[in-house]
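Meet the record:
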Amino acid sequence: MCRAHATVRGLLGEIVSGAQDVALADMEAGLENLSRGTPRYADAVVTVLEPYYRSLETGARVAELARELGVKRVHAVANKVRSAADAAAIESFCKSRGLELLGTVPHDDAILDADREGKALLDRAPSSPAVRAIQEIADRLLV
């Protein structure tokens, strides 16, 4: 076990055990955090799926590993969705893998604009389609 992952896992365990509110950890993309057990104490894991084969397959593996760690709530979020075909592909994939799809974040040029300006999307475009979608997903997750 690498020291960094052990430290983060222990820290998350301490935070979660004393949390009165919500603690949100944005983990590095990929499987390493899960294979090292870093989110072992999480109440929920949300895997972000983009409408591409590798993203979908990685997301499915994230869900499997989270379940193996004993995480009770494992969800998916569709991201960078440009078309009805993208949405349908992700929905179908989630159904076939037993993943609850919390919602869909559309491709939104406001994200790129905010990034180019070095600003947070919420500050740059608080009513953009992506911000609205993320708020709806957060509301569903907190239920």
About this structure: Helices lie at 3-18, 32-35, 53-68, 84-97, 109-117, 121-124, 129-141.
